[in-house]
Amino acid sequence: MRHAPYKEARQALAARWRSEGWQAEQTVAAALDAGAERHPTARLVFGSRTRPATLTTRDVQEQGRRLAAVLARRGLRPGDTLVMQLPNWAEWAVGWYASMYAGLVVAPVVHIYGAAELGYIVRDCGARALITPDTWRSYDYLERIAAMGPCPALDLVVAVGERAVPGGVVWDDLVHEEAAPSGPAPRRPDDPCLLLYTSGTTADPKGVVHTSNSFLAEIQTMANELTRDASTVFLNGGPAGHITGALTNTRPFLDGSTAVSMDAWNPEDAVDLSLRYGVTASVGAPVFLNTMLDVAEAKGVTLGLREFMLGAASVPPSAVARADQAGMPGYRCYGSTEHPTISTGHPGDPFEVRAFTDGSVIAGTEVRIVDENGRVLPAGRDGDILSIGPDQFSGYLTDELNADAFTPDGWFRTGDIGHLDQLGNLTITDRRKDVIIRGGENLSSKEIEDALARHPFIAEAAVVAAPDDRLGETACAFIVPRPGETVDLRSIGSWFAELGVARQKTPERLVIVDDLPRTPSGKIRKVELRARLSSPDGCSSESVSGTGR
Questions:
Q1: Burial class (CB in 10 A: 0-12, 13-18, 19+), 460
Q2: Residues forming beta bridges with residue 140, ordered by sequence position
């Protein structure tokens, strides 16, 4: 049967990227193995208050190979999916190495996802194995597993800690099981290796498929843009459930750098780790930068970072300026789970480029700015952003989504709006996708709206992103109550907890309205709701802060 046009176009693009050397035709397992031989003493530091650890790449290799043999003996086969809902702990790095060596597909899940989201993901990808903590912070993960519903393909549940689910196993027992060692499982560079779930614009998370080729291309292309070598000490404060987790745990094998990962963002810990290990670079939302500098200034210490990449949320010029004043040039970047890096600034760029644009399109990637009819727009004109590049995902797990995601000639519709200037710098000005980016975490407005629609006192609800000085954006719910009923943030918080939805998705701002603005076709005009929020006298609201969500 003849492929859809976009599939043929994507195949042609992949062949081009291979011929141009952007994709090395190597599996992640082979790259990790070769890297452990080249850089056996490169360190992976896990700055956790509960499970601190430091491993060399050689340590990870040895432990990962043993675990791969155990997983194979347990019945996992190449191509099977293993879900890891772990924080940035040493077990994540070992599980990643073992999975790549055993030929598995890893599906990382952010630690905040509750039973509803976790159960959906495990069923959607047909996961054969699941690794979580038993408990961590205020979360009881075993309760989540018990509440996530039937998962018929799931054979192995591993808990990091002291307790296991009925029929499951604790990590320490699993890794000490006897199993005959074997070589890496046979996999091709274009086979899936990483499956990431992103909220996107729909209620259910979308599975984003990366292959060894696309994943390793992200590391190679960024190595061409930014100097990363054995002198680099990189601080990662983002969750392991993002692509950043897999990248951070892989780079030391490829370039000999040191990776310092935090399991939960705490600015005091970030400062201590930076000073202890001599951190030279980091990346994160403005909230990471600002809170870390607040602590450093309060302590009267100078951090040794040479640069700070800002992304994952709206980046005000003041954040770049503050990084500059602290001696660590700040710069913006732009990308997504589907296309990890599309553009980036550089520490040596002029302030105007670093503070007011999202940098230049990286080598190997191309960007088109088009109007609603697909016509390419000139420099300076806002339009829809299309991209192609060797580090771009191969498609969504649900194939029906791909026809809308790609143009007939294979370009990815990012869902964002922006423009290129005369020098080729890209600036994002708006989003087609209805996503709230809260402290670097993507939240689906529709998912939140669906939860609100089930509330017995709510007639209608619309959710938009509200600007927030600390987190970049938070969820604001415009609500029409049912006649005679009263709704407040406290009752909404209790409702979301009852539904088992992650606390981060609970609205943090509430506006009660008599009606919602609509287009002639009946669609809610969210542009108008956002405009109300940006106007000082546009609406009165109830808000919550300091919740730690």
A1: middle
A2: 135
Of 326, 330, 331, give the one whose Cα is nearest residue 293: 326
DSSP, collapsed to helix, strand or coil, labels residue 400 as helix
- Cβ-proximal residues to 272 (8 Å cutoff; 6+ apart), any chain: none
Sign of the dihedral through C-alpha 306, 312, 318, 319? negative
What type of residue sits at position 231?
S
Strands 458-468, 472-481: pairing kind: antiparallel
Sequential DSSP letters for 186-225:
P--TTSEEEEEEE-TTSSS-EEEEEEHHHHHHHHHHHHHH
| Partners of 334 in beta bridges | 343
* C-alpha span between 115 and 130 (Å, rounded): 13
CA-nearest of 472, 486, 494, 493 to 543 is 493
E runs forming strands in 397-525: 412-420, 426-431, 435-438, 441-444, 458-468, 472-481, 509-512
**CATH code matching the domain that covers 1-22+364-432, chosen among 3.40.50.720, 3.40.1370.10, 2.30.38.10, 3.90.1210.10:** 2.30.38.10
Which amino acid, one-letter code, is at 247? Answer: L
Cβ-based burial of 113 (10 A; exposed 0-12, middle 13-18, buried ≥19): buried
pLDDT mean by block of 10 residues, the chain; 549 residues? 78 92 92 97 97 98 98 97 97 98 96 90 97 95 95 97 96 96 92 88 79 96 88 94 93 97 95 98 90 96 96 80 96 95 97 96 96 94 95 95 94 94 92 79 81 90 88 92 92 92 90 82 76 70 48
The pairing of strands 330-334 and 343-344 is antiparallel
Task: Based on DSSP, count helices (H) and strands (E) in the chain, helices before strands.
Answer: 17, 29
Q: Do the Cβ atoms of 408 and 366 come closer than 8 Å?
A: no
Strand 395-396 with 206-211, pairing: antiparallel
Q: How far apart are CA 265 and CA 460, in angstroms?
A: 35
Predicted local distance difference test score (pLDDT) of residue 541: 62
What are the two backbone dihedrals, phi and then psi, of residue 258, each rounded to the nearest 5 degrees?
Answer: -105, 130
Residue-range domain boundaries for the chain:
1-22+364-432, 435-543
Q: What residues does 310 pair with on adjacent strands?
A: 284, 332
Kindly report the backbone phi and psi dihedral angles of residue 212, in degrees, each rounded to the nearest multiple of 5, phi listed first. -55, -40
Of residues 70, 69, 94, the one with CA closest to residue 184: 69
CB 211 within 8 A of CB 200: no
The rounded distance, in Å, linking the Cα atoms of 455 and 449 is: 10
Eight-class DSSP state of 155:
-
Nearest to 47 by CA among 304, 302, 291, 236: 236
pTM: 0.85
Count CB neighbours of 425 within 10 A: 22
CATH fold of 435-543 reads GMP Synthetase; Chain A, domain 3 (3.30.300)
For residue 187, give both structure tokens.
Answer: 């996999």
